[in-house]
């Protein structure tokens, strides 16, 4: 029995079918993203930062628990929370004093040394974002510290950042190493240099200065927002 198509036509038909399948799969992925669970009105986005060297287990609202590695990835992803009530965070199974946040914002909560202390709350500004560049955020988490961040070659990026405050700026997405220090007092010691993670346009990179004035530590990570699971 003869084939319905000559061999070249059969190959072309197979190729067209393959492209159709690829197009259908891509379209399905786009539909899935379009109809993925969206955060309801009145939500905010909160992440928790562990400034201590030891690992700590935290839960933000009704979201899954995170294990925060102080010397590796100190901050969780941003998670969706209900801003209508108190922000409840548990640390190693104990509930921290509640916090108040506004709807529609992004926040970083700095864990205290013990669960009986109130955590620090830093509002993360999102205005003026330039997706053609990356954004660098520098957080000073050392008590009684006037913090500065500079490139390893000496060029200054930020200065005069107070305790539990953050500064930000747009940068070109390049590979670089940075160092941080507390520029006040007798212990004017630079932190060991930290290499910024690989970045691309639109990324936000957070750099955290932790430890003490005499012995600061520096870490960095790419910011991320966890997908909304339907629970906040």
Could you characterize what this model shows?
By secondary structure, this protein is mainly beta. Strands 4-1-7-8 form a 4-stranded mixed beta sheet, with no helix packed on it. Strands 3-2-5-6 form a 4-stranded antiparallel beta sheet, with no helix packed on it. Strand 15 and strand 16 form a beta hairpin. The radius of gyration is 23 Å and the shape is globular.
Question: Which characteristics define this entry?
Answer:
232 residues, four-stranded mixed β-sheet, four-stranded antiparallel β-sheet, 1 helix, globular, disordered N terminus
Number of strands: 16
Q: Choose one word for the global shape.
A: globular
Strand % is 35-45%
Summarize the helix and strand pattern as letters. HEEEEEEEEEEEEEEEE
Helix content: 10-25%
The oligomerization state is single chain
Structural class determined from secondary elements = mainly beta
What's the arrangement of strands in the largest beta sheet?
Answer: 4-1-7-8
How many whole angstroms does the radius of gyration measure? 23 Å
Q: Quote the distance from N terminus to C terminus.
A: 64 Å
Number of helices: 1
Q: How can the largest sheet be summarized?
A: 4 strands, mixed
State the low-pLDDT regions, or none.
Answer: 1-7, 11-16, 18-36
Mean pLDDT: 84
């Amino acid at each position: 029995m003869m084939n319905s198509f000559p061999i070249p036509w059969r190959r072309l038909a197979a190729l067209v079918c393959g492209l159709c399948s690829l197009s259908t799969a891509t379209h399905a992925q786009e539909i899935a993203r379009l109809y993925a669970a969206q955060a309801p009105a009145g939500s905010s986005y909160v992440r928790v930062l562990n400034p201590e060297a030891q690992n700590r287990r935290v839960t933000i609202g009704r979201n899954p628990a995170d294990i925060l590695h102080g010397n590796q990835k100190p901050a969780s992803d941003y998670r969706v929370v209900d801003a209508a009530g108190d922000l409840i965070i548990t640390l190693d199974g104990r509930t921290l004093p509640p916090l108040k946040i506004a709807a529609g914002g992004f926040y970083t909560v700095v864990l205290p040394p013990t669960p009986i202390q109130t955590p620090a709350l830093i509002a993360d500004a999102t205005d003026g974002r330039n997706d053609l560049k990356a954004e660098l955020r520098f957080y000073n988490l050392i008590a009684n510290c006037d913090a500065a961040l500079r490139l390893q070659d000496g060029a200054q990026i930020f200065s005069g950042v107070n305790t539990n405050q953050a500064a930000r700026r747009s940068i070109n997405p390049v590979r670089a190493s940075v160092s941080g220090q507390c520029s006040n007092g007798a212990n004017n010691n630079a932190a060991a240099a930290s290499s910024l993670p690989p970045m691309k346009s639109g990324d936000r990179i957070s750099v955290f200065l932790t430890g003490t004035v005499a012995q600061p530590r520096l870490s960095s990570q790419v910011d991320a927002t966890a997908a909304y699971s339907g629970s906040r």
